[in-house]
TrEMBL record:
Keywords: Calcium, Heme, Hydrogen peroxide, Iron, Metal-binding, Oxidoreductase, Peroxidase, Potassium. It comes from Zea mays (Maize). Residues 119-252 form the Plant heme peroxidase family profile domain. Belongs to the peroxidase family. Ascorbate peroxidase subfamily. The keyword Oxidoreductase applies. This is L-ascorbate peroxidase.
Length: 275
């Protein structure tokens, strides 16, 4: 796919403070008073997180994450923010009914089941849930409806990622209930971090949809640049943001560098493509 927007990548990735501020502000929408509210003390959160990991371990889960995360330059942080921006924005009208719970418990549960080899599938799951959003009427978006949509042609293979997160959800729910929407959003951020990207804060407060979103909201692989711009503009994306969002292909089996390393190989490949 050729996008006549390659110069936007360099200019967009350099405006780090502006873009990251925009991401952080948008990520607060739909949460209680724009804040991530936690109810437990630090010691209580640790006990709860340990409880989740223990329960998942008893279910036969062997994967875990430990050790310090790599320090990244701001430019790479911008790329991660752009990729996850639509995934991490709660719907504006859902916070009143939402349960408030501790993000650390959710992250611990996700880390207990997620490996680098599974990260790309989880990130794809996140986009396919969030990608149904339409800015015109506020429909679709990060609402967990993807669990009802796995039989659609565009969602082939996502059952595996849902199965992975279902195991995490079972353990987390034994400590405190978590919506599918919040779980998937946190999992997307953890997938990026696990592959060497930055840690991205995720605001909570999403309520799950009780039915599937309308079909035909996700971009088809055969769309040309003009059609992609039109489709993503309906989701609130500029052409620059669309190009940066494409950087999600840095992980996975698309042939851009290592499939389990979050880097800018995809960006470098685009620069080598003639306009």
């Amino acid at each position: 796919m050729e996008l006549n927007s390659i110069p936007y990548i360099a200019s967009w990735s350099s405006s780090s403070s502006c873009f990251y501020y925009s991401y952080s502000r948008c990520a607060c929408r739909g949460t209680r008073d724009g804040k991530l509210v936690t109810k437990a003390s630090a010691a209580g959160r640790k006990r709860a997180a340990d409880s989740v990991c223990s329960q998942l371990s008893e279910q036969g889960t062997e994967d875990s994450i430990s050790g310090p995360r790599s320090s990244w330059r701001i430019r790479r942080r911008d790329l991660a923010s752009a990729i996850l921006l639509p995934f991490l924005i709660p719907r504006v009208n859902i916070s009143i009914a939402a349960e408030i719970y501790d993000a650390s418990i959710i992250r611990s549960g996700v880390r207990s089941v997620l490996t680098k080899g599974k990260a790309a599938g989880v990130l794809r799951l996140v986009f396919h849930d969030a990608g149904t959003f339409e800015i015109g009427d506020g429909s679709g978006g990060m609402n967990g409806s993807i669990i009802y949509e796995v039989d659609r042609p565009e969602n082939i293979g996502l059952n595996r990622s849902i199965k992975i997160l279902r195991k995490a959800k079972e353990g987390i729910d034994n400590v405190q209930k978590v919506s599918w929407a919040d779980l998937i959003a946190v999992a997307g951020a953890e997938a990026v971090a696990l592959c060497g990207g930055p840690e991205i804060p995720v605001r909570l407060g999403r309520v799950d949809s009780s039915s599937a979103d309308p079909s035909g909201k996700l971009p088809e692989e055969t769309l040309d640049a003009a059609s992609l711009k039109t489709l993503f503009s309906k989701k609130g994306f500029s052409a620059q943001e669309l190009v940066v969002l494409s950087g999600a292909h840095t992980i996975g089996g698309k042939g851009f560098g290592s499939p389990v390393v979050f880097d800018n190989t995809y960006f470098k490949n685009l620069l080598r493509v003639p306009l």
